[in-house]
Structures are given as C-alpha cells and as structure tokens.
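Please, structure for the following, as tokens.
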Amino acid sequence: MGLQDDLRMQWRTGGMVVRLILINAAVFLGLLIIQLVLLGVAGDRMSALALRDFYVVQWLRSTSDLGALLWKPWTVFTYMFVHTEFGHIFWNMIMLWFGGRMFQDLLGDKRLLGNYLLGGLSGFALFALSQNLLPGMHGGVTAGIQGASAAALSVFVGIAAYRPDMIVNLILIGPVKLMYVAAVFVLLDLVGIGSGDGVAHEAHIGGALYGFLAAQQLKRGSDWSLRFVELLGRLWPFGKRKGPRMRVEKSFVGRAPRKDADYNANKREKQARVDSILDKISRSGYDSLSKEEKDFLFKASDGK
C-alpha cells in the first residue's frame, strides 16, 4: 500500500482526531513547500519567509485588529490550522492526539469537532478582547494569532473536566489523574500571560475555558458542541454523498415486533458495560482498555 492509499485509509478509519491532525499537517507541509519554492526566487530564507507570509499566511492567520478582520473574517476559523514552525505543530498535535483519543472514544467524533472549533473560536475571542481592551499588557502592539493550541487545549481540558478522575500513565511519572495534567497546562498559560514571550496565552485560556464549560453543560444535558456541528451540517452538509443514493427496502415478513421489555433490557445491558469500561478507565487508565473495549465505547458514544 502506497503513502496516498495509507493516508486515505487513515482518513476513513482514524476518526475525527486523525482527520484534524492530517488537516493541520497538510497545511504545514503546504506552507513549507511554498517557502522552499520562494527560496529559489528570493535567494535567502528571510526574504522567502516574508514573501510567504505576505502572499499566503496573512490570509490564513487571524488578527486582533478588528478593522483588518472585516476583510478576512474566515481567519477566525483558518488560524487554528496554521503552523509555520515544526515545534509549534508537533506539540499541538501531541496534545490533540493524547486528549483527542479519549475524547473521541467517550464522546464521539461530532462533539470532538465541535469542541475543537468552538474552543478555537473562544480562544480567538479572549485573545482579541485582551488585545483591544488591555493593550498595555502587550506593549500596545496589535498582534496576529495562528496555531491549534487553543483548540487542542479545549479538547484536552474538555475530556479532563468530563472525566476528571480518569487515570493516565505519563512517561517518567506514572499514573496520574487527567485533571491534574490539564490543570498544569492551564497554570502554565496563566503564568505566561503578559510575559512578552510571543505566545498567545490568552487564546489558550479561552480554549480551556470553553472545554471546561462545555463539559459541565454536557453533564447537565446541554450539548453545545454537538449542536454547533449539527448547525454547520445544515449550513454545509459535511460528508453527504453526491449523486443519487441507493434505496434499500427492508422486509419485516416473518419477524416478530421487538418488545419494549427486550429493548429496555438490551439498553440496560449496554449501559452497564459502558459503566464498567468507564470504571476500568478510572482505576487503571485509558491505555488499559483492549481494542475491543475501545471500539465498543466509541460505537456507544455515537449511539450505534
């Protein structure tokens, strides 16, 4: 199987977390290729970077300048897929993979996508507010924003807030509750605000805040992320097949109607197994699950 076929297989079978990582990686590689092409034209690296940023990146990254934002409103979405440095995309994708696998298996693909996008939007909103309302904290300089940090942290904090007692195994540390890992990330960003290190810590906090609030609302029965993705689906039908669809008619001849008692019994049995798997995660960590248990949890989260 060639690389192209392997990527197609990963796209079809890897779930939303793999798709988001592949999109981020594709944008990064595309910008790198453009930089290499411009290097041959410009003659030196700094000139090539300047040309790439002027002709391409500035139309993808976003800005806290509200006047400039009116000319490129789409950037409030595209910025969260843009990385121009390897270290930046590497650590963001590590966080997205680590938290996204657990989020996807427990809450499903659609909620993961909604959490990623709304976390990124919340991150941008807090970043823009802090830049415009507290300019002294940033030296009065209007800044741009790019990268998946806010969106990835939203996913990570979201699953940590939904299952705070989940145990994860960290290299050199061992088993630790997921909520403590998320708390460390948030604390580092709180400390970094106003440090002048060039990192949009306010955006990270905004993403984390959405992840926490969305998880609390989900526990109360209000599903912000899923409703947002369903709204996007109505505006732009993701995944709908083009062309005529094959119609399949089911025959119920000779099949007894399913009784309510049987349905309720199967539902209770399924829920009992989900609870058992979640208890196992809390005791031994997510990595202790077998592939069959992960598959069952993923299907249960999508209502299959």
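Residues 42 and 48 are 6 Å apart (CA to CA). Residues 241-257 have pLDDT under 50 and may be disordered.
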